[in-house]
Amino acid sequence: MKRTLVISDIHGELGMLTALLEKANYNSKTDRLFLLGDYIDRGPDSKATLDKVIELVEGGAVALKGNHEDMMVKSLIDGNERIWRNWTGRNGGDATLQSYGFKPESFLFSEEEEFQKPHLHSDHLNRHLEFVRNLPYYIEEEETIFIHAGVKPGVSLEETDPHELIWIRDEFHANYKGPKTVIFGHTPTKGLRNDESDNSIYYGSNSIIGIDGGAVFGGQLNCLVLPEKKEVFVFAKK
Predict the structure, then answer these.
(1) CA–CA separation, 28 vs 32, rounded Å?
(2) DSSP-derived secondary structure for 173-238
(3) CA–CA dist 150, 62 (Å, integer)
(4) Domain spans, the chain
(5) Predicted structure pTM score
(6) What is the C-alpha separation between 230 and 210, in angstroms, rounded?
(7) What span, in angstroms and rounded, lies between the C-alpha atoms of 185 and 211?
(8) Could you give the angle at the alpha carbon of 157 between the alpha carbons of 151 and 162, nearest 5°?
(9) Residues with Cβ within 8 Å of residue 193, at least 6 apart in sequence
(10) Could you read off the pLDDT tens digit of each residue along the chain, which spans 238 residues?
(11) Whole-number Å distance between alpha carbons of 188 and 217
């Protein structure tokens, strides 16, 4: 049986991703790799991280969409003012745009300024937007669901609003009772266990496995290795 490696919430931390894949001895010919979203924002190099994700997908990996990719698409393609301000002002989109070479004065707006969608031209960025806008929201297998944030209890995946799949938190964590194991990121595991010092993989009693180690916040980048449920990780540089 092939090993399955699962990683989530890289957030522009390319060095950590590269080190983690090396530590886990990832081999694209013999392993499966699932990436659960949030490749961008907050960290030092979102552009190069997306380049790496695309390279991994071309080598056979599966990449899913996270809420940060969704904010990027809705900001840059749809030009939604509320989401733009939220993305660039509070969710690290400013770091992402700077990784493509854009200056903050070209895309940041104060609360008093009238909003006009900035014209930020970059062929590199356009290629990445096309990639992330077409990412799937989940992969469902016989015994496992791979997803960014979680599932809505009592609602089938096909009938769930995609917004829920990349944003849901407490309702899923507390009330999921499905037969399949759900492996997800999005919510840092220290919050799932209410322990600020523990960023390791979280195993819920209701068949949920949280793997977001809060790497970009000084925690660790986790890799869940299946079927043995082995944990490989690298710490953030303090």
Answers:
(1) 7
(2) HHH---SSEEEE-SS-HHHHTT-TT--S-EE-TTSEEE----GGGTSEEEEEEETTTEEEEEEPP-
(3) 17
(4) 3-235
(5) 0.97
(6) 13
(7) 5
(8) 75
(9) 202
(10) 799 999 999 999 999 999 999 999 999 999 999 999 999 999 999 999 999 999 999 999 999 999 999 999 999 998 889 999 999 999 999 999 999 999 999 998 887 888 888 889 899 999 999 999 999 999 999 999 999 999 999 999 999 999 999 999 999 999 999 999 999 999 999 999 999 999 999 999 999 999 999 999 999 999 999 999 999 999 998 6
(11) 10
- Is-contact 91 70, C-beta < 8 A? no
| Surface-to-core class of residue 196, CB atoms within 10 Å of its CB (0-12 exposed, 13-18 middle, 19+ buried) | exposed
Which residues, in sequence order, are CB contacts of 40 under 8 Å at separation 6+? 11, 12, 46, 49, 50, 68, 69, 72, 92, 93, 96
Q: Tell me how crowded residue 117 is: count the other CB atoms within 10 A of its CB.
A: 14
Beta bridge partners of 62: 34
CATH class assigned to 3-235: alpha beta
